[in-house]
């Protein structure tokens, strides 16, 4: 019987190590940006213009030189095909059921906050025109790769003095600008926050590393509180543009926080002052969380709702991660090989963190 249980737990250990290796080979920043699009939608009387930055792979038929970005010449050459394709994927309809006639052109400038890699994304201007003044508008956005549930389009809608921030997903493809309730806008950013931390494997491994040394419920509460307060501070400061650091520096620093905490698990025995370390390193992670929100234009009227909702989503995801990790790690206490297991996982996390640091700092 004992032999069967040992085989069972050995299988789990091997699975976890394999999972960590797989995560390590995935660049977390790519997980956030690869399927992300950003739209700035200016609504006018008879004309609405969308400045859209999207993965070039969605219109690969127009990328003749395969450089990952449509040049003005390629856009002009393939204009009829692009207008037909994008017109089917993104439609704007007024209250009378009239769809705007689409005309595309190369964008003269990137949206002010854009940070997405220009080698993977293209920016175009999509102009929708009507013969009569538009009194209401419904946007249907379906520019997603098939079977990619993580794809998102972060949209800022500017209409007269009103600004809305919306998140289009494969599950939520349509918004009506005349009756989009506040709770729906908030829920979109809550979900975005949850997904951001759950698919941000660097943040996940950081939290798991903090719990790898064990500790009771009191320790867990200190860690969660310290991380919540610190990342909320820098998330807000970064989104408000009070603090701004190069993305490469922030992402490299996040990788080093993972390396340090996991390495500390290998030699340190006590948990004293770990909450303070969590607070300090959480400041760095907050700057990383802010990256995706800085892709949208947040005016004063829309800033509070989007920022608070996104942060709530991050907290929900964080609680989910630490709860599962805490329960599983506590189950190991009754086994004699618990310490060996914790050190094995911590060692794997150190290696992954170093690999990510090399990727981010030197572009390897």
Summarize the structure.
This protein is α+β, with helices and mostly antiparallel strands and 364 residues long.
Strand order of the largest sheet: 4-5-2-1-7-8
Helix content: 40-55%
The percentage of residues in β strands lies in: 15-25%
Head-to-tail CA distance between termini: 48 Å
Structural class, by secondary structure, is alpha+beta
Query: Radius of gyration, Cα only, in angstroms?
Result: 23 Å
State the helix count: 11
> How many β-strands, per DSSP?
9
Question: Any low-confidence stretches, pLDDT <50, length ≥5?
Answer: 1-5, 22-26
Mean pLDDT: 83
Q: Biggest sheet, open or closed, and with what strands and sense?
A: 6 strands, mixed
Question: Can you tell me the overall shape?
Answer: elongated
Order of helices and strands: HHEEHHEEEEEEEHHHHHHH
Pfam family, one: HupE_UreJ_2
Transmembrane segments: 189-212, 275-293, 305-329, 341-358
Keywords: Membrane, Transmembrane, Transmembrane helix
Protein name: HupE/UreJ family protein
Description:
- It holds the Pfam family HupE_UreJ_2.
- The chain has 364 residues and is of the alpha+beta class.
- The chain has helices at 2-24, 28-33, 72-77, 79-89, 182-198, 201-211, 217-239, 247-267, 274-293, 300-331, 338-362; strands spanning 36-43, 47-55, 90-94, 101-106, 121-129, 137-141, 152-159, 162-168, 174-176.
- The protein has a six-stranded mixed β-sheet, with helices on both faces.
- A hairpin with a 3-residue loop joins β1 (36-43) and β2 (47-55).
- The longest helix has 32 residues, at 300-331.
- Residues 1-5 and 22-26 have low confidence and may be disordered.
